Amino acid sequence: MNKDRIDGAAKQAKGAVEAATGKLLGDAKLVADGKHDEASGKLQNALGGLKDSLKQ
What is the total count of domains within the chain? Predict the structure, then answer.
């Protein structure tokens, strides 16, 4: 587990909360920003996993 995986998971969780809050409030920009953060976190987590697998 490296820093990219941890940061990615945190960003993914933050994005999910942000998107849910946006849906609850009816704020389309907040939903879009949350989904963007969530996707970015998934990508960062995947890159961290790739780095981990290449180290071994």
Answer: 1
